[in-house]
Design a protein that fits this description.
By secondary structure, the protein is of the alpha/beta class. It starts with a helix and ends in a 5-residue tail after the last helix. It has an eight-stranded mixed β-sheet with strand order 3-2-1-4-5-6-7-8, with helices on both faces. β7, α7 (171-183) and β8 (187-190) form a beta-alpha-beta unit. The protein has two domains: 3-190, NAD(P)-binding Rossmann-like Domain (Rossmann fold); 201-320, N-(1-d-carboxylethyl)-l-norvaline Dehydrogenase, domain 2. Helices cover 53% and strands 11% of the residues. The chain has helices at residues 3-9, 22-33, 45-64, 72-77, 85-89, 103-116, 171-183, 200-216, 222-237, 242-249, 254-271, 280-293, 299-320, and strands spanning 14-18, 37-41, 79-81, 94-97, 122-125, 146-151, 160-165, 187-190. This is 3-hydroxyacyl-CoA dehydrogenase. Keywords: Membrane, Oxidoreductase, Transmembrane, Transmembrane helix.
């Protein structure tokens, strides 16, 4: 489907966004790029006044890097600043709450949104750590359509979005939310159970915890740790994830890697007080998923593909990445 056809197909979609901070503004850009009508609200009049210029500036930057299929002006015209939460929620297919990470505030907002939004609208929070069970009241009539949708930051450049249903979220609402975010050009992943921090921040947190420990223990400097990530793990993980990385790093795949390296990783975890060995059952589960995605007879070809992707990335970095510090 062409971009124009996609926009025509989704022209009837409306997103209401509550909170015009950096994430709310970024979501407005995402939905506008997908051809949606966007209504953006913030209780702070100063924020409402500042948001249009921020949107225009971000769109201008995206245009400068040839990342827009339409003019910045056409996209900005799809975003309407409104004066009330009720106006933002009116006729919305999806309402995205982007308020600060405070349970009581979100509880009040979801009560208001449940009254204001159409009965079939999805009500989603951009919460980074708080699960919906922490702020959606048990007596809320529409709680079955409430969930968390935590984006990468900014979502128009980091398109992953974690869809986290609560135990009370209807399966149909979860499926619809995943479909709507996909239509908006994002990459939704489903978090199967509520857990603080979801996937994104738990993975990021694991790296940060070890990074802080390495500094504390005098093993490495802050600058050297950032260098290892920027010049080592970062480029590799921008092409493939951690499971595929080790699957392709060891001939024989991830099962062979776990056999050879698992004991070392177990000792490193235990050193930090985290004893989570890779049991044979767990390794078998992960290996089965990897072999489903990549049969071993295709392993060499995929390794060559990975290397070519890294070559393209290296070429781009050589040409365009400059140290502006």
């Amino acid at each position: 489907m062409t971009t124009h056809a996609m926009h025509e197909a989704h022209a009837a979609r409306t997103a209401g966004i509550v909170g015009a901070g950096s994430i709310g503004v970024a979501f407005a850009i995402c939905f506008a790029r997908a051809g949606w009508r966007v209504r953006l609200y913030d209780p702070d009049a100063a924020r409402r006044a500042a948001a249009p210029a921020e949107i225009a500036q971000r769109l201008a930057d995206l245009a400068r890097f040839d990342l827009l299929d339409e003019t910045a002006a056409d996209l900005a015209a799809r975003v309407e600043m409104v004066e009330s939460l009720e106006a933002a929620a009116a006729n919305a297919d999806l309402v995205q709450e982007c308020a600060p990470e405070r349970a009581e505030l979100k509880r009040d907002l979801f009560a208001q949104l449940d009254r204001a939004a159409p009965r079939d609208a999805i009500l989603a929070s951009a919460s980074s750590f708080l699960a919906a069970s922490k702020f959606v009241d048990a007596t809320l009539p529409g709680r079955a359509r409430c969930l968390v949708a935590h984006p990468g930051n900014p979502p128009y450049l980091v398109p992953v979005i974690e869809v986290v249903p609560a135990p009370f979220t209807a399966e149909a609402a979860t499926v619809r939310a995943i479909a709507l975010y996909g239509e908006a050009g994002l990459k939704p992943v489903r978090v199967k159970h509520e857990v603080e921090g979801f996937i994104f921040n738990r993975l990021q947190g694991a790296v940060l915890r070890e990074a802080y420990c390495l500094v504390r223990d005098g093993i490495a400097s802050v600058e050297d740790i950032d260098t290892v990530m920027r010049e080592g793990l970062g480029p590799r993980w921008s092409v493939i994830g951690p499971f595929e990385t080790v699957d392709l790093n060891t001939r024989g795949g991830i099962g062979s890697h776990a056999q050879k390296m698992g004991p070392s990783y177990e000792r490193m975890g235990a050193e930090r007080g985290q004893h989570d060995p890779w049991t044979p059952e767990l390794v078998a589960q992960v290996e089965a998923a990897r072999r489903h995605a990549l049969p071993l007879e295709h392993w060499d070809a995929r390794v060559n593909w990975r290397d070519r992707q890294l070559m393209q990335l290296a070429r781009h970095r050589k040409r365009f990445i400059r140290d502006d510090s």
